[in-house]
Amino acid sequence: MNRKDSLLYQNARFYEAFERSSIEMMEEIWSGTSAVRCIHPGWSIVEGRHAVLESWQRIFEGEVHMKVTLRNVRADVYGTIGIVVLQEEVLYTTGKLSNTGAVMATNIFEHDGRDWKLIHHHGSPTVVLAEQEGENFRFN
Amino acid sequence: MNRKDSLLYQNARFYEAFERSSIEMMEEIWSGTSAVRCIHPGWSIVEGRHAVLESWQRIFEGEVHMKVTLRNVRADVYGTIGIVVLQEEVLYTTGKLSNTGAVMATNIFEHDGRDWKLIHHHGSPTVVLAEQEGENFRFN
Q1: Nearest to A127 among B42, B47, B78 (CB)
Q2: What interface predicted TM-score (ipTM) does this complex get?
Q3: For B78-130, what is each residue's pLDDT tens digit?
Q4: How far is A19 from chain B (nearest CA, A)?
Q5: Residue of A103, A132, B56, B121 with fewest CB within 10 Å of its CB?
Q6: What does the pLDDT read at residue A50?
Q7: d(Cα A54, Cα A61) in Å, to the nearest integer?
Q8: DSSP strand E in chain B: where?
Q9: For residue A127, what are the contacts with CB-CB under 8 A and spacing of at least 6?
């Protein structure tokens, strides 16, 4: 797998962790060595591995099942930094109710020589849908 | 000036261009060689130098004067990539009316051997203010 493919693979694993509400997968995906930061939609910044993982734990504790479809995925590799920009289409289900939301995301990964590790996630609510139809990406 | 200081300087120039509604400064700041992308608060993604500059032009055509105060500025350099994460406090003024908004921003710059050039801006509305009081940064 080349660097860009492995970047997309790790990005897909991040959303798999999200769908599965798996804090163990999140622990693997987020960098354990570099400064990490996370901006959840509408939130302020969360900084540091401990606080970032705790924020995901809080999200996972909500009894909401989330299904994410990735649209218009763009990925670029610059040395040891990989940048993925995309649109998340999130289907939230709680009991018999469900709702869809669109989130724009910037995900920044750092390659540690073996794997891409997430160092920054910025998710934000969007009201405007993408005009162009790009590559749709579903990881399972 | 070391790389981190010049990164912060170029980041401040980006906001100066914003405050001055200067498309000429934006043309200087945004990369002319790499793929550029921009997510304005609530918008979908804008891609490519031409479309990105046009989107700023449209914003600047609105008769709104904007003053930006940067808060909790975080900057990291990874080789030729510089990442700046911060909170924008924007004071919008139109005629006698004014309003304040908070925006979380991720700005990614690429060093071209001479200067840092902006390749990605992601701005998103936030409802939660930063809990920690960090370094406040005012560029003029």
Answers
A1: B42
A2: 0.88
A3: 999 999 999 999 998 888 888 888 999 999 999 999 999 999 999 998 875 54
A4: 23
A5: A132
A6: 98
A7: 11
A8: 37-39, 45-47, 65-78, 81-94, 97-111, 116-125, 136-137
A9: A102, B42
Q: How far apart, in Å, are the Cα atoms of A8 and each of A12, A15, A49, A76? A: 6, 11, 22, 10
Chain B contact present for A113, CB below 8 A? no
Residue bearing tokens 């590790």: A117
CB nearest A131 (choices: B44, B85, B108): B44
**Closest residue in A to B39 (Cα–Cα):** A104
Evaluate if residue A37 carries a pLDDT over 60. Answer: yes
Q: How confident is the model at residue A130 (pLDDT cuts 50, 70, 90)?
A: very low
pLDDT at B131: 44
Q: Which amino acid is at A89?
A: E
Query: Strands A81-94 and A65-78, how do they pair?
Result: antiparallel
Give CA–CA dist A11/A66, Å, rounded.
17
Distance from C-alpha of A110 to C-alpha of A133, rounded to nearest angstrom: 28
